Amino acid sequence: MIWILLLLLILVVFGFGFTMQALWWVAAVLLVVWIVGFVMRGRGSGGRGGGRRSGGRRYSRSRG
After folding, report:
1. SS3 call for 63
2. What is the SS3 assignment for 19-31?
3. Cα(26)–Cα(29) distance, rounded to whole angstroms?
4. Full-model pTM
């Protein structure tokens, strides 16, 4: 009986370790994607500071 509990404990610890390792890889990939997106957004705005948010809809409405 003690061997079964020991085996289950080892499996749980191994599964937790594998999950944590996988989550570290997922976090690293998401960080790289976020950095690339941040850099590409900075280049795409042309240095205007905000890109689409600086103009908005208030200038596209017709008067009258």
Report:
1. coil
2. HHHHHHHHHHHHH
3. 5
4. 0.50
